[in-house]
Specification:
Length: 257
């Protein structure tokens, strides 16, 4: 039976864990994806409206992209994230800390694609991350901030595919079967609401996301310390570790706002 490493959440060497993600590979092969065994989701959230036409600096679309790039929109009651701010967006590793009751699940992801697209109808930018070895899930999430040029409406589009990691501890798989899908939908609903609020506030104040240039970034910024009773799960899934790590940094399409 797979084992799990547990420790008090406040004692986790966060920087060490984040830096260790550089040595990990993706924990799935796209060739494994089957409609019968994986979940496929699409969410679309209206963020607000800009004047018609291509977006300009300081617009709602521009600020939404800035917030998206800093990952400030993650809902703090469900998930927090840590990353090295000096790392380029493409190839950046994020340590996601999922929160459920007293448990904190540490899960690594890597941004493997950034993408810009303009087709005369829609103007969009965003990025995608994929799960790394040890993550409780396997899969990919795409975030895109889209401006509809004729109407000026700005939306967030989130597309994903995922499944619970078959190499996760049986207790984790049981918990996922009971609570996983509900938690996912609550997460994405909160993501849309948070990005709408942050982008509108930034457009009104002109203040960019607060990202430190030293140490690690923790988002949301106001998340605060862990509770003394919280328990961290460091190895919820026992993925194999190949002799030669695949340093997958993905693809970039276009520019970063």
């Amino acid at each position: 039976m797979p084992t799990m490493r547990l420790m008090r959440a406040g004692n986790v060497p966060v920087r060490e864990v984040v830096l260790g993600l550089r040595e990990k590979s993706l924990n799935y092969d796209p060739a494994e994806i089957r409609a019968s065994a994986w979940h496929f989701d699409h969410h679309r959230f209206v963020l607000g409206q800009d004047p018609a036409g291509r977006p300009e600096e300081g617009s709602l679309w521009w600020h939404a992209c800035r917030e998206l790039g800093a990952y400030t929109f993650t809902p703090k009651k469900l998930l927090r994230a840590h990353y090295v701010p000096e790392e380029p967006l493409l190839g950046r590793n994020l340590l996601l800390v999922g929160r459920f009751a007293f448990a904190r699940f540490l899960m690594g992801v890597r941004i493997t694609e950034t993408a810009f697209d303009e087709d005369g109808v829609r103007y969009s930018w965003g990025w995608s991350y994929e799960t790394l070895q040890g993550h409780l899930e396997r899969g990919r999430v795409d975030y895109r901030v889209v401006k509809h040029l004729e109407s000026g409406v700005v939306t967030l589009e989130v597309n994903s595919y995922n499944q619970v990691n078959p190499r996760a501890h049986p207790l984790v798989r049981l918990g996922w079967a009971v609570f996983g899908r509900g938690a996912q939908h609550r997460f994405y609903t909160a993501v849309g609401a948070n990005l709408r609020e942050l982008s509108e506030r930034a457009r009104e104040t002109g203040v960019s996301p607060a990202v430190s240039g030293e140490g690690l970034v923790e988002v949301p910024v106001e998340s605060g310390p862990e509770s003394s009773w919280a328990v961290a799960v460091l190895d919820g899934a026992r993925d194999s570790h190949p002799d030669e790590v695949v340093a997958h940094t993905g693809r970039s399409h276009g520019y970063t706002p």
